[in-house]
Design brief:
Chain lengths: 319, 256
């Protein structure tokens, strides 16, 4: 797949000295759905804002569709649609006018048929003549999406699109995302709902404290970093892990033993464990395995990064 | 998309003009009423004591000054509000992320603000012509002065709208700078009516040159040379354009 957005050594330090991005490099492939995950204040919105032209970088470069975002801003920006995190809308405008306004801003000739299609798809057709101030929060979010799609972008940035919206809108939104994916539109998504990223993304990028911690195919990520837990339900539940099994690092869960192992390792150690269970006279009633979710992986990465930062701070203070 | 983005300019212009239609009372009717009140107070009450100024009936004499007063105030307030409001509610993100140059953004916002104040100026002129006799010696020059003034002060309003980070600042310059300058710039009197010391002070007021040149296009009487007036407006326009160019180059108060 071709690279459609190329971010090289991007840095951003705000006037107050806050370092929002540090040397971020990321290639986004054409047609993929990339989920950008990170806690609040990690730098996700700053990254998107720079690519879209809302904020200026203090270092590095970005090209979109092969066009530098500074020197060839017209070409690069015309490829991008943005749904920002906050609900910024012109309260007094009608839905129809505001969507057409967005299309005009991007230099596209009027196309009422296309605009109608988007508005219908986002179930806004009945509200097309309503003032935006009369709409609910969820409806306003739909308007924001319609505005971002109004100029037929090849790249769509969705910054927390499902924050605070109901299940129905989320479903509608993912339908639109799926349709766009089939049309080859590249989608970059930030979300707090990790299960959504897990369900729809092709690749996952994790950002924390302005640094990109990883970019990985979701499938590989799940396989590489995914740990499995084997739940051993015993005929007679135990209240302590027998000493003879201490080498396996077992834990207890409601009288059952839990064995955590790495699926990517050369051997899982399950056979040895089962033999030793037998030797210890423990009879197995049932076995169950559970896979780590993307959320577990994400939380693990971010907490390790936070620990690292804490250690660096305390080392610095000590020296 | 590589060339001039006319559609974006048109989109911003239409959007801003639609706002005028929605707020017709505030945008058009209210200034017309307040200007009519000026006519009642200055034209009828005071005008009954002052017969003529430099050979022109006082009621007619103040017409160009009144038009200028509205033109300046409305150009500044329309343009400053036009750009400040998207900043305030956050919709500016869309303009900043669109494939538009700063010239196109300025053309859209300033063009709409200048159009609105020009419409208003012409409405006031029409209203005035119903009350006092008006002759326009040089209609083309009159219109040129109006257009230049409307555009220049809309540019100033645009700068104020970008600089302001609260509503108080938005009102500060029009209230504390523009209005006193207009009142002290010979809108309602001829500079020759002032004592010599105040005459000297008045010559430092840029609005004097606007009002004087504009009045010349009506009655061929002026406090300063019409050419000097034209040069002053053009100079002011150039300064505003230079500041706006700098704003967009640096992203001042627009891009974080």
């Amino acid at each position: 797949m071709n690279t459609i957005v190329s971010i090289q050594n991007l840095s951003k330090t705000y006037d107050n000295g806050f370092n929002a991005l540090s040397d971020v490099s990321l290639d986004i492939r054409e047609g993929e759905i990339l989920a950008l995950l990170g806690p609040n204040g990690a730098g996700k919105t700053t990254l998107i804002s720079i690519v879209c032209g809302i904020a200026s970088a203090t270092g590095g470069s970005v090209s979109v569709g092969g066009h530098d975002i500074e020197k060839e801003y017209r070409q690069s920006r015309s490829l991008i649609g943005l749904v920002p995190q906050e609900l910024h809308t012109d309260s007094f405008e009608s839905v129809w006018n505001t969507v057409n306004f967005s299309r005009g801003l991007f230099g596209k000739a009027p196309n009422p048929g296309y605009v109608e299609e988007i508005i219908r798809e986002l179930t806004l057709w009945d509200k097309r003549d309503s003032q935006i101030m009369q709409l609910s929060g969820g409806m306003k979010r739909r308007v924001m999406i319609a505005k971002a799609l109004s100029h037929e972008p090849r790249i769509l940035f969705l910054d927390e699109p499902t924050a605070g919206v109901d299940v129905e809108l989320r479903k509608d939104m993912w339908k639109v995302v799926e349709r766009l994916r089939q049309q080859g539109v590249t989608i970059i998504l930030t979300t707090h709902y990790i299960e959504e990223a897990e369900a729809i993304a092709d690749r996952i990028a994790v950002i924390n404290r302005g640094k990109l911690l990883l970019v990985e195919d979701k499938k590989n990520l799940m396989e590489e970093l995914g740990k499995k837990a084997l739940y051993i339900h015993l005929v007679k539940p135990v209240d302590a892990v027998p000493d003879s099994l201490s080498k396996y690092g077992l834990s207890l869960s409601n009288g059952s033993l839990v064995y955590t192992y790495d699926t990517a390792g050369s051997g899982t150690g399950i056979t040895g464990l089962l033999n030793d269970l037998n030797k210890a006279g423990l009879k197995v009633r049932d076995l169950e395995t559970r896979q780590s979710s993307l959320e577990d992986i994400f939380v693990g990465l971010v907490s390790r990064d936070a620990e690292k930062a804490e250690n660096q701070t305390s080392d610095g203070a000590a020296s | 998309m590589t060339g001039f983005n006319w559609r974006a300019v048109w989109a911003i212009y239409r959007f801003e003009m639609a706002r005028t239609r929605r707020t017709i009372l505030q945008s058009i009717i209210s200034p017309v009423i307040s200007t009519s009140l000026y006519f009642v107070v200055f034209g009828s009450a005071i005008g009954s004591r002052i017969q003529t100024v430099e050979g022109v009936g006082y009621g007619s004499f103040i017409v160009p000054g009144l038009i200028m007063l509205s033109l300046l105030q409305q150009s500044v307030s329309n343009a400053s509000f036009g750009i400040y409001f998207p900043k305030f509610i956050g919709t500016i993100y869309e303009v900043l992320s669109a494939p538009i140059s700063f010239i196109e953004i300025v053309m859209g916002y300033v063009g709409a603000a200048a159009t609105k104040s020009l419409m208003l100026g012409l409405i006031i002129l029409a209203t005035a012509s119903l009350i006092v006799p008006i002759t326009i010696a040089h209609p083309a020059i009159m219109l040129a002065f109006m257009v230049l003034t409307a555009v220049s002060f809309a540019l100033l309003g645009f700068i104020i709208g970008i600089w302001a980070d609260n509503f108080e600042k938005l009102q500060l310059v029009p209230l504390l700078v523009i209005t006193p300058l207009v009142f002290l710039g010979g809108s309602f009197y001829s500079v020759s009516m002032l004592p010599p010391a105040w005459q000297m002070v008045t010559y430092f007021n840029p609005v004097l040159y606007l009002v004087s040149g504009f009045r010349w296009s009506f009655f061929e009487v002026s406090d300063v040379s019409p050419l000097l007036s034209l040069v002053a407006v053009a100079g002011f326009l150039a300064i505003c354009l230079a500041i706006i160019w700098w704003i967009f180059k640096t992203g001042y108060r627009l891009r974080s």
